[in-house]
Amino acid sequence: MRLGLAGVVAGATLALGFSAAAAPVTYERLLNAQQESHNWLLPYGSYNSHNHSNLTQINRSNVGDLRVKFLHTIGGLNMVDPVERTQSTPAVNDGFMYLFTTWGVVSKVDVRSGSRALPVWRNDGESEMGKRMRGTVALLDNFVFHNTGDRRLIKIDADSGETVWEVSTLMPVEEAFRVDQTASIQPIALKNQLLTASTLTVRRNELSSWDAETGDLMWSFWTVPGPGEFGHETWADDWGAWKTGNAALWTQGSFDPETNLVIYGTGEPGNWRDPTSRPGDNLFTNAAIAINVDTGLLEWYFQEIPNESWDYDTVSPRMLYDIEIDGVTRKVQGNFSRDGYYYTLDRTNGDFLGAEAFTKVNWTAGLDPKTGMPVEYNPNKLIQDYAPMKAGRPGVPEASQNVCPNFYGAPTYFPPTYDAARMEATITNSEGCFSYDMDAPGGPRVDIDPPEEAGAPRTYPNNSREAIGRQLGQIASVDVRTGKTIAEAFTPYALYSGVLGTSGGLLFVGHPDGKFAAYDMDTLGEVWSFHNGTPISAPPISYMVDGKQYIAVAVGGQNLAGLANAPELGEYQLNSQVVVFGL
Hints:
The protein has 583 residues and is mostly beta strands. The protein has a single domain (2-582), classed as Quinoprotein alcohol dehydrogenase-like superfamily (Methanol Dehydrogenase, Chain A). It is 2% helix and 36% strand. The strands form ten sheets. The chain has a five-stranded antiparallel beta sheet with strand order 1-13-12-11-10, with no helix packed on it. β7 (105-110) and β8 form a beta hairpin.
């Protein structure tokens, strides 16, 4: 642990000497964050990940009057490095906004005037790695907690901006089997702890808890089980594929205080293209996992696709809500998965309750209505086939062709929105299909080359991935009581920003060509837009100061030119800013 006393900080802090105090963010406030409509205290607005604002001042009748109120540069982008892209979400507490860059710089700005963001302090975490980071910084008591791309958890005094302490969140190499451990999500604050997670493909990943007072490690849960742990037998190879098994945590989890469980969706197995290299179901990849936040123990899991081979990780945030099924109220989690289905699970035990496709799906003929497993799944087989010739196979070029949905489609990292009054969930999506060739020209490539103790290096054929035709954007709303799609609309470009819903009957969505638009929640028709001129791949938020509602979004995001077969998108340059709109 590295400690920083007042005036002796790990990074540079700029204090401007005026009142910059807001009420401490207690755990009780976080539990009731959705009732604080004027603030945005958690990554998706609340522990239940509804990504919905109860504010109504901006609504369908006046959204046409929405205007830019101010812009504030975030910084931290390097145009040469494609991983440096703004995918962050501002946090707002009592008129103060907290922002962070891809290089570990956290800033606090005063937005109480409604016409500008006045800098209060800036804390430079001096990260050695520029990394796209998602979510919000964590607010707890009178502190700000920040996770850097090179895996350091930093505690900052919310008033002064001075570093209180920082700790390394790197796991021991003999357990992680990688030296180059990274993170792509900010911590979650709950109770007296911070939850961090690793997000690196082709390695073993973990979720960890850290004491908010001392920075001490409380527990860790490995998303790929090791020898002697439940699920380890589902890695049935003879070379140690579990050591580089992936199951990354790309988005922040949802917390249910009633069950004391935090629920995450996990990433695909590594190497995802070749299921023959890792026979077995490959737990806990492509799964919902529920972890007890006091003990770090797995309470339940539900795996969507055992032995998966399309990069269909299921990392879209889990929305927590209650519905009535057969006359009984069930506590559920609902999630849009990258495999094209909307899943409903009992959040107390992980029981499958139903799933419906919300986009075009052909990798399977369907899901078993009782188990939720693909109908082709055979628990007695180590290599799963699913729909004929859709799964990848070395030396079989006709396999894995025209697979739907696109691996970069359906929801990836960015949140849907849930409207409890309407009992509707809405997602933004990339509508389309893709092919990949495991034996593409270009010679062999090493996709997994772990340290010696992780097993023999694995050499895989070169491969190519290609979207089939132009990838459109889709906005889809489902009735969560049935899981069925009740409305959808399409846009010229794939959507990659997530969606904010408001009680004003509006949905706010960012586009890869820089358009920021509002849609009518009933019709999904566009009712307002503004062009920022730089790609958007971060979810918007809403907050209120002095009785006035604002919509804010971070811009300067993902360039989808190649992924969406839209070369004109490649002409847009990145400009990392937060843009704030109001009436």
